[in-house]
Amino acid sequence: MRAPLKLPGLLAFAACALLTGLSAAHADPAGFAAARARGELVVGVPYLAPPPVAGAKIRTPDGLDANMAEKLGASLGLPVRLRQVRAEEAGELLSAGQVDVVLADAANGQPATVAVQPTGYSTRPKAVIRSDTRLRKPADVQGRSVCMAEADTDARALAAAWGAVVRTYRVPSDALVAVREGACDVGLVDDAVWEPLVRFPEWKKFSATLPADGAKREQVWLLPASDAAGRAWLAGEMQAWSQSGAWKAMTSKWARDVAFDVYLDQEVPDCHG
Hints:
This is Solute-binding protein family 3/N-terminal domain-containing protein. InterPro entries: Solute-binding_3/MltF_N (IPR001638). This protein is an alpha/beta fold. Helix content is 39%, strand content 19%. It is built from 9 helices and 9 strands. The strands form 2 sheets. The protein has a 5-stranded mixed beta sheet with strand order 2-1-3-9-4. Strands 5-8-6-7 form a 4-stranded mixed beta sheet, with helices on both faces. Strand 6 (145-149), helix 5 (153-161) and strand 7 (165-169) form a beta-alpha-beta unit. Helix 7 crosses helix 9 (246-265).
């Protein structure tokens, strides 16, 4: 029979287990070796808004691209630099090491050198409409003005399919201000951010919408297929985001930021009363 482990032995065993656990918890994530060597994570995004001119107000960009990139960088313990990258040029830039990972709206047509990791975040455009109008279905919008951020290509395509007059703005808050002030009949934002936006009291009278239309689009990460460790880490990271409620947190923050942008832009009470 094995002799019972004495108290000092138990304490030493527990201390060793604790230190091992702490070491594993703080170990650098596998993969993304080039980014760690560089000391910076370069993330490609579909659209990068030009920097504001001197004296212009800083406004929240369309979508969660920047939020997702920053969160990924935080998980890796690296600062993030964004670069505008079209999906069709992702393979070349990834192979050349000019970007570490690319966030894309679709994975169609990628070469074998590119691995695709779904994010789990799917959206489609949803309408923001003043509640006392009679616009309730897409056919009602034909010939009416529909506004969205210029980066939102899905919203632009959907509004055009409705036969609407499409008007684009540099950032989402500009489009939504136009809706609030009556310059646009309908605003379009992602359906994932629509609910947290219209939950704010000042948006209650703009909480009408249209039936869901258009296909859902899931964003994906593109990274080098040769980085097996990075692919495995990224898959686990996306699972962790879904389980921790990260998407809800990011969409709620986006809605709050945009609502505040609109508040700052409207220096006088809503002209509709």
